[in-house]
Amino acid sequence: MKSIITLVTVLGVASFSLAADDAAKKPEEGKGKKPDMAAVFAKKDANSDGKVSKEEFLKGSKDAAKSEKQFASKDKDSDGNLTKEEFTAAGKKKDK
């Protein structure tokens, strides 16, 4: 009986530890934390050429029109690609 209790305790601790590891890997959504834009850039840069094309940027977008406007506002040199610097630059807030 003691070995069963020990096994259950060990499994419970292991399960808690795995859940904590997962929580550490995923940023909390809606908690005001900003995403790591360098990591987002690397994920969007599907062909790893150091640039994010318009097609790469729009892939998976739920609102294509909004995403196209975002792309255009970030593409400062209008070459149709976003460099890491353009991609990670913070957008300017509009004054109301």
Task: Explain what you see.
This protein is mainly alpha-helical. The protein contains five helices and two strands, in the order H-H-E-H-H-E-H. It has helices spanning 2-25, 37-44, 54-58, 64-74, 84-88, and strands at residues 52-53, 81-82. The longest helix is centred in the first third of the chain and has 24 residues, at 2-25. Mean pLDDT is 76; it is low at 6-24.
Short description:
The protein has helices at residues 2-25, 37-44, 54-58, 64-74, 84-88; strands at 52-53, 81-82. It is mainly α and 96 residues long.
Structural features:
two-stranded antiparallel ribbon, 5 helices, 55% helix, elongated
Q: Report how far the terminal alpha carbons are from each other.
A: 69 Å
Give the SSE string: HHEHHEH
**Total helical segments:** 5
Q: List the uncertain runs.
A: 6-24
Strand proportion, as a percent range, falls in under 5%
Q: Categorize the overall geometry.
A: elongated
> Strand order across the biggest sheet?
1-2
Helix/strand structural class: mainly alpha
Radius of gyration: 21 Å
- The pLDDT mean sits at 76
Largest sheet: 2 strands, antiparallel
**Percentage of residues in helical conformation:** 55-70%
Number of strands: 2
Helix/strand layout:
Blueprint: H1 2-25, H2 37-44, E1 52-53, H3 54-58, H4 64-74, E2 81-82, H5 84-88
Antiparallel strand pairs: 1-2
